[in-house]
Amino acid sequence: MSPPLLTFQQATGSELGLVNRFYKANGHKGKCGRDDRVTLARSGDRIVGAVRLIHKGDIWLLRSLWIAGDQRRLGIGGQLLTACLQGLNAPVWCYPYAYLVDFYTAHGFCSALPEQAPAVIARPWQAYRDNGEEFALMVWQPPRSLP
After folding, report:
1. Structural domains of the chain, ranges and CATH numbers in brackets
2. Which Pfam families did the record assign (predicted)?
3. Partners of 10 in beta bridges
């Protein structure tokens, strides 16, 4: 299957219900909060991918990067991640499954220790770990401007 022609855009508030239906129809239990910054990948009018950024003070938490089942392994996830990070000037943290660490590393994220993370990130990560989840802890830093 060849990669589809894609567009990437920020979801509007009125589209969050569509994103939640996309997640549910594609087997993901995540839901958008009304204040989430959601980036969509579309093929024509069809949503084929979505990712959420949750603002946590002066940082972001990346959640729910999800691609439609019939569109996986076509590079859409990497393109969507790049689109969602574009223009950000604050760190972005995420809790990927271990098998996704290489994917996030390839897109500029670095592994982090819990003591390096702000409490608003480290506490939930530790709670997941305490409940048996095997999530990694990673951070992306925005490019620095030259003086």
Report:
1. 7-140 (3.40.630.30)
2. Acetyltransf_7
3. 39
